[in-house]
Amino acid sequence: xxxxxxxxxxxxxxxxxxxxDAFVIIAGFIIDVATHGTVEEIASLIIIFRLWRFVKxxxxxxxxxxxxxxxxxxxxxxxxxxxxxxxxxxxxxxxxRTS
Length: 99
Fold this sequence. Notes:
4 helices
């Protein structure tokens, strides 16, 4: 449910991982309800898929953080160039006043 909150409905289903994730959750719920522990092998497989989901979620968060970091680095470089430009304008204005 949190993924639907953070991603819009259309963005959620554009990525195959989100579709697979939803499938694993729904299949796990159906198997849990239908078997009531009679098919432990299938339940074990679902548990492994759920753990794999956790790893993939952590991976997505780290990739999102890396992308955000790249955006911030580009913004910092832009601000540095702007700062240098402003410094040169200030120096030019000071030189013009003292002449």
